[in-house]
């Protein structure tokens, strides 16, 4: 079985964008791959969360993973900080990563710009925010993962992990790391903000109306979709370049109902945007209902903590082997 790794940071309210771009694939892959999925809590530290928001956000995200269908008997879900090999390998990889390549990461540039223009100012851009793609490379390479399911925005970071793996294979030891491939869905790879369809929907966007949170109430979902930004043409057509808002609604509805976009376009041929918005909201409400029910059952259950512990134990066995292999290749003297 091919091995898969992917993670999500507990940095806010998980949005339907995170689900459709990443988690949906995680669930679909469980039967055919050996899966390692992670709540990347160490990544969340890069934006200096409060202890309470990190703690609660980590458990919320773990419960959502299980609620969307991650089966603890098929996939290994764990908290990144429970497997200390992630931090250890990250340092070793930082020593073969270049300042220049990290400076070119568009996500760092975007976040830096956002922080600089906020009240916090440039003093709150941490070194961790800059180097976190190397920690992500360590996350992936530790598991010899061949496939990394992600949304479009993370493609560049997986490419960095590939470059680092190839560099280690050339400079340190041939074959020391498996070179991973990103897996990006054809539809849903970049769900856009409902308030500004030129921007990605993000769980940490300060404007709550810009996204559908996985735990939003039906009323909130309906209100957000009714106010979703579209255009003035009043023509329902899938054209993600010129009609980003309308295309975004069609993608969301298609993924939540399993109806192809071409079928939706035909159904809405003589309709206006009002109907598209209301029916997209209804489809999302219906789709999220069972997920929300399972989430509330699981969130404070003792089984969840047991599953996470089991996931971390399984993950650590593989992570330790890979780390030792790389330490030996580097020439670090073994303790044993
Ligand atoms: N809008 C999106 N559409 C499709 N996929 C998305 N992903 C994120 N936003 C969208 C995918 O979700 C996973 C979560 O990755 P992450 O937690 O590491 O953070 P991110 O990519 O930076 O996502 P966010 O929501 O924008 O988080 P914040 O606001 O904290 O930075 C990834 O696979 C990502 O591609």
What does this structure look like?
This protein has 336 residues and is mainly alpha-helical. It has two domains: 211 residues, HUPs (Rossmann fold, 3-Layer(aba) Sandwich), CATH 3.40.50; 89 residues, Tyrosyl-Transfer RNA Synthetase. α3 packs across α12. It binds adenosine-5'-tetraphosphate. The site of adenosine-5'-tetraphosphate (AQP) has 22 residues, from α1.
Structure characteristics:
single chain; 336 residues; mainly alpha; Rossmann fold; 3-stranded parallel beta sheet; two-stranded parallel ribbon; 13 helices; 5 strands; binds adenosine-5'-tetraphosphate
Question: What is the element layout, followed by pairings?
Answer:
Elements: E1 3-8, H1 16-29, E2 34-39, H2 41-44, H3 51-68, E3 75-79, H4 85-94, H5 99-103, H6 106-117, H7 127-141, E4 147-149, H8 155-171, E5 181-183, H9 218-226, H10 244-257, H11 261-267, H12 273-298, H13 302-330
Parallel strand pairs: 1-2, 2-3, 4-5
Helix pairs in contact: 3-12, 4-7, 4-13, 7-8, 9-12, 10-12
Bound molecules: adenosine-5'-tetraphosphate.
Adenosine-5'-tetraphosphate is lined by residues 8-9, 11-12, 15, 17-18, 20-22, 150-151, 153-154, 189-191, 200-204.
